Prior knowledge:
Elements: E1 5-12, H1 16-27, E2 32-35, H2 44-47, E3 51-52, H3 59-80, E4 83-84, E5 88-92, H4 95-107, E6 120-122, H5 124-130, E7 140-144, E8 148-150, H6 152-165, E9 169-171, E10 176-180, E11 183-186, E12 189-198, H7 204-207, H8 209-214, E13 218-228, E14 239-240, H9 242-245, H10 249-252, H11 257-267, H12 269-273, E15 279-282, E16 288-291, E17 295-297, H13 306-320, E18 325-336, E19 341-347, E20 350-355, H14 360-378, H15 380-388
Parallel strand pairs: 1-2, 1-12, 2-9, 5-14, 12-20
Antiparallel strand pairs: 3-8, 4-8, 5-7, 6-7, 10-11, 11-12, 13-16, 13-17, 13-18, 14-15, 15-16, 19-20
Helix pairs in contact: 1-6, 1-14, 3-6, 3-14
This protein binds flavin-adenine dinucleotide.
The site of flavin-adenine dinucleotide has 41 residues, from helix 1, helix 2, strand 13, strand 18 and helix 14.
Pfam families: DAO
Protein name: FAD dependent oxidoreductase TIGR03364
GO cellular component, one term: cytoplasm
Amino acid sequence: MSAIERFDVVVVGSGIVGLGAALAAVDRGCSVLVIDRASEIAGASVRNFGHLCFTPQSGLARDYAMASREIWLRLAHDAGFWIDDAGTLVVARHDDELQLLRELAAQRLPRSPGAAVEVELLTADEIETLAALPAGTAVGGARLPLDLQVDPRFAAAAIRDHLLGRGVEFRMRTAAGRIASGRVDTSRGPVDAGTIVVAVNHDIDQLFPVMAERYGVVRCGLDMMRVTADLPRPLTGPLLTGWSLIRYSAFTSMAASSDVRDRLTAERPELAALDLNQMYTQRPDGSLIVGDSHWKGESVSPFQPEDAARALLDEFESLFQHRADVVERWQGVYATAGEEFLIEEIEPDVLVTVVTTGIGMTTGLGLAEKVVGAHLDTHSRTLTESTML
Length: 389
Ligand SMILES: Cc1cc2nc3c(=O)[nH]c(=O)nc-3n(C[C@H](O)[C@H](O)[C@H](O)COP(=O)(O)OP(=O)(O)OC[C@H]3O[C@@H](n4cnc5c(N)ncnc54)[C@H](O)[C@@H]3O)c2cc1C
């Protein structure tokens, strides 16, 4: 009978949260196995905008976001993938949107000499130039200089390759079944582990359905597309619109946010019904990622109604005054719940780490460092003893 393999840390899920967990573990000298039931990294972590929106977060998300920022910069250097530090652009097309940006800028003033400016207010001319918009589109805007952008299709794979080089083992096409303290039963047999990290995004409702129901986790399906368009100049950063100002927590905590929400909902009920977040990122090849709509439920329909895609294209063409040619369409899914994170040690040394809203690229690496790293630090004596057995 062959002996059961043993690792200090087994991570279930090779998306950005799982990769972050593997990084936190290998940084602490652990032996690490990452398993994923897919043959490639193909979940939400490659289907997103690649927008690392640190500034509009608050509370725990802000802590994780700022920790993530350092890790993204380090990884981009160490793993050698493209990262852009030009910051996020926000176009205000109405006075209430500009008012919200002014409130945020006043709240995020640098507290000490030399501290970074987090929100730079822009004139209408400035935002139109930086975001390739026609004259007369904006009443003003802002730049959020701390924010970063990556190309998600390449970043996750580059991080995996970097981790491989540091001795982390990846076992793809391998599904986790029963998970209990010390052991993961996989579709290739059992594996023993000092610590198990479950980073399976919305599939948490399959692995731990009772816990997922307790947290009110459902799935959120998003329609996305990649387009080419003959814009007069490139975007100088991810571009958010008023629809984004009613989403991210630091924006929604501003007094003007309810004015923006009420007006947009009254003016464009059909877009509000799609739960639209009209935003854009431009990839290094010049094509633009366009999104997104949101549909929440226990399952996500495999059939994508064309009205969402039509609305995304219409809004693109009306904003930029340029035709968009669709290159690709896809659907993304993430877990969503009342709180932004589901973090629980469901059994001793079994950590569940799920970002339960659409900010996992922004916060996932920091979450992994703060939750998994802190757990390993606390349990380092046990770990060293078990590794030496
Ligand atoms: C369309 C879209 C746009 C988004 N835009 C942004 C953005 O711009 N900025 C931002 O911060 N966030 C964004 N997000 C959110 C972000 O992408 C996610 O929060 C993040 O990628 C989640 O990472 P993850 O590692 O938890 O999940 P995933 O990347 O989905 O990885 C989970 C992995 O678990 C594996 N798995 C599941 N069950 C099992 C099992 N039983 N056994 C083995 N493996 C299993 C899956 O195969 C998958 O590979 C967006 C999300 C979507 C869908």
